[in-house]
Structures are given as structure tokens and as C-alpha cells.
């Protein structure tokens, strides 16, 4: 699904719309049936505010086969972001 450090999502946070980049801290794997449709969604941590420290948990990636959740993994900030 994704490799460690791969950019999976970005969000503009705070009044100055500072960019927070979410990456997995480890490789993310999912098992799906051959030929099945899979998708992934990033769910941001509610109430995420600046400052954000590099390596802090900011989101979660969820992997689906059709409508069935088959994997989930935390995402961390790729770099620190000041207010």
C-alpha cells in the first residue's frame, strides 16, 4: 500500500494554512483478493493544531477491499511545522 516515508496526504492547518505532510513510519501492507478493487482513505486526527512535531501521529490510513476494511496504519508528520 505504502512505503515508509511515502507522502500519502497533506493538510493545510491553522490560520496561515501551514502544510502538514502525513507519511507512514513503517511500510504498510494489505492483503486483497486478486482482481478485487481496493481503495485507501486518510483520516486526519480530529482537532489537529500547530505546532506539529516531526514523527508525531497526525492521521491514519485505512485500506478497503470494496467496503470492507482490510488494513489500517498510523501516519506521522514528515517534518515539524511551526505555527
Determine the structural class based on helices, strands and strand pairing.
mainly beta
The pLDDT mean sits at 96
Computed CA radius of gyration, to the nearest angstrom: 14 Å
- Specify the overall morphology: elongated
Q: Give the topology string: H per helix, E per strand.
A: EEEEE
The low-confidence runs, each spanning 5 or more residues with pLDDT under 50, are none
* Main sheet: strands, sense, barrel: 5 strands, antiparallel
**Strands in their spatial order, largest beta sheet:** 1-2-5-4-3
Number of helices: 0
Number of strands: 5
Hey, roughly how much beta strand do the residues contain?
A: over 45%
Straight-line N-to-C gap: 31 Å
Provide the helix percentage.
under 10%
Explain the overall architecture:
With 83 residues, the chain is mainly beta. The protein has strands at 9-13, 18-24, 38-44, 57-65, 68-77. The chain is elongated.
Task: Itemize the secondary structure elements and their pairings.
Layout: E1 9-13, E2 18-24, E3 38-44, E4 57-65, E5 68-77
Antiparallel strand pairs: 1-2, 2-5, 3-4, 4-5
Amino acid at each position: 500500500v505504502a512505503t515508509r516515508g511515502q507522502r500519502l496526504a497533506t493538510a493545510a492547518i491553522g490560520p496561515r494554512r501551514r502544510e502538514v505532510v502525513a507519511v507512514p513510519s513503517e511500510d504498510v501492507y494489505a492483503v486483497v483478493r486478486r482482481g478485487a478493487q481496493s481503495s485507501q482513505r486518510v483520516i486526519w486526527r480530529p482537532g489537529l493544531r500547530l505546532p506539529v512535531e516531526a514523527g508525531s501521529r497526525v492521521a491514519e490510513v485505512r485500506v478497503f477491499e470494496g467496503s470492507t476494511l482490510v488494513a489500517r496504519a498510523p501516519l506521522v508528520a514528515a517534518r515539524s511545522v511551526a505555527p
